[in-house]
Amino acid sequence: MKRRIGKIVLFFSIMAFLSAAGIVVFNLWGEYRAAQASQNITRQIRKLDVQPMAAAQLIEIDGEYYIGILSIPALSLELPVNNTLDYDRLEESPCRYTGDFSGSLVISAHNFEHHFRGISTLSYGDMAIITDAAGREHEYRVELMETLSESDVDAMVNSPYDLTLFTCTPGRTERVTVRFTRVQEEAAGNAPRAPNYRINYRTETIRLRKGALYSTDGVDFTEVTEEKGITLDVSDCITYGISIHIKRAATEKRPASHPQIIVPLARADDT
Q1: DSSP string covering 90-127, please?
Q2: Phi and psi angles of residue 66, each rounded to the nearest 5 degrees, phi first
Q3: Cα–Cα distances in Å, from 179 out to 106, 162, 163, 186?
Q4: Which of 73, 117, 137, 160 is found 20 to 30 A from 17 (Cα to Cα)?
Q5: pLDDT, averaged in runs of 10, over the chain (271 residues)
């Protein structure tokens, strides 16, 4: 009887091992296919004779339409951005989630090694460049990093930032979110505004509105009760990359159970 039980246990152990190995192989194959597809599409777009200042339009490759090529020098990435988002298209390239070059552009991609897995390692000041269908380059600079819940679509879409890149965490319940501002707007001194906070990197402070709750440990939250809001010194958070957890004011619709987590990244010349 013991021998029979041992054989059964061994059988299921082998099956579990084979199943796990199969999942790993499947994921690796998916990542390989995604990398190859993106590289192939990028090459085809680069071969097109695009004249700068031409009328803006989408780029058609094999019946698919792309808004351009996204380059992230710090990650050595060049990726096409599909104009339409769905699961099948995400298997090949990042996709436009919402917005356009005239406002807040949001781009989503899978957590593949050669797609957006590395965006969580970006630092304040790192560049992202999108070359559009007319050959014009749109330059953006990393402003901050956030972690949003899967269901927090409102915070993902309604931001004051010019460009947002996001991907899922390994557990797929949260979204690694990197916010960018246009280089020319930053040079002009226009700081981006968000619903409950505003970071000023020159004075290393953060501005919070009345009703917002904040914490640096994610547990002990303090509510802002002052009518005009408050200004906090976040120099240590900027220097050491300490995250700040912010819950929106009670009058807003954001669920209190899903705090916004921002990381005010240190300037590149300070690291």
Answers
A1: HTTS-EEEE--TTS-EEEE--S-TTTTGGGGG--BT-E
A2: -125, 145
A3: 9, 8, 6, 13
A4: 117
A5: 60 56 50 73 78 67 93 94 94 94 92 91 90 91 88 85 92 89 62 59 81 86 88 86 80 61 68 38
- Amino acid identity for residue 69 in this structure: I
d(CA 258, CA 262): 13
Is-contact 242 265, C-beta < 8 A? no
What's the CATH number for 1-190? Answer: 2.40.260.10
CA distance 30 to 23: 10
Segments making up each domain of the chain, as ranges: 1-190, 197-270
Which is nearest to 66 in space by CA: 91, 93, 86, 101? 93
Output phi, psi for 215, to 5 deg. Answer: -160, 150
